[in-house]
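[step 3/7] inverse_fold.run input=structure_tokens len=257
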């Protein structure tokens, strides 16, 4: 029932997500703040699995930046999102394609293993099923493969975030919450994943530019401020504090045997 609720929820939000999270101002922020930190793993992976792909905006950006050097398979619980993704890559369907699937499903079989499994703002939507999610990672990750989680950081103002999740209709608070790095580490350790890198990021620019759908930031304001706010966030992340930065990138690898 929860999975159906989430599917319906994201079907409604899909177009709003595309308009706010993937306009040119958000893409600029994402490229300078986030993608630059994971580009090496993307470039050296020849078989990528993206969980919660939406309409394919992440793939489009990665491809534009020359970061896709092999196969790219994506899944999403939204049929509309998967349809949009496959329409976008229709000329290369043998190398790039998406399917409707739920990565929290028990005993999921996607028909192969992957050198990189990528969660971009997705794991915190699956917090009721973390055991199954990490079991599915274990099943689908190649030897020496990598997993990347890009997530809200629960050590940052989480009491306010919990209230925000409950009062806003943009969230499904029964299924989603922010996680701490410690929580993710615990599940990763149980499934033979070793922490490779932990990076905290995201300040004022993260909210006003990247979270414009939630805060209802007008486009004129994003246009006027996206460059200075991105520069500010790049500067403030140097403090490396989990209490001052809103988000995190957790990179894990399967250790050599």
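[step 3/7] decode complete -> sequence:
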């Amino acid at each position: 029932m929860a999975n159906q609720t989430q599917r319906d929820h994201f079907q409604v939000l899909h177009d709003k997500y595309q308009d706010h999270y993937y306009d040119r101002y958000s893409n600029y922020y994402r490229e300078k703040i986030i993608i630059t930190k994971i580009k090496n793993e993307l470039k050296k992976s020849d078989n990528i699995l993206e969980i919660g792909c939406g309409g394919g905006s992440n793939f489009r950006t990665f491809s534009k930046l020359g970061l896709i050097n092999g196969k790219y398979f994506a899944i999403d619980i939204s049929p509309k999102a998967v349809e949009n993704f496959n329409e976008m890559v229709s000329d290369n369907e043998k190398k790039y394609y998406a399917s409707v699937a739920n990565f929290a499903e028990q005993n999921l079989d996607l028909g192969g293993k992957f050198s990189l499994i990528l969660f971009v703002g997705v794991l915190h939507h699956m917090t009721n099923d973390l055991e199954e999610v990490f079991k599915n990672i274990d099943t689908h990750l190649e030897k020496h493969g990598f997993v990347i989680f890009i997530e809200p950081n629960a050590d940052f103002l989480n009491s306010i975030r919990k209230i925000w999740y409950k009062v806003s209709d943009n969230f499904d608070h029964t299924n989603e919450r922010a996680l701490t790095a410690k929580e993710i580490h615990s599940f990763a350790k149980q499934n033979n994943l070793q922490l490779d890198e932990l990076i905290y990021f995201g300040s004022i620019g993260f909210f006003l530019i990247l979270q414009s759908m939630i805060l209802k930031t007008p486009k004129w304001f994003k246009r006027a401020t996206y460059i200075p706010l991105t520069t500010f966030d790049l500067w403030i992340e140097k403090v490396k504090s989990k209490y001052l930065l809103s988000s995190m990138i957790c990179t894990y690898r399967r250790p050599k045997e």
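[step 4/7] annotate
The first strand starts at residue 47 and ends at 51.
Strands lie at 47-51, 71-76, 96-100, 114-120, 141-152, 194-201, 247-253.
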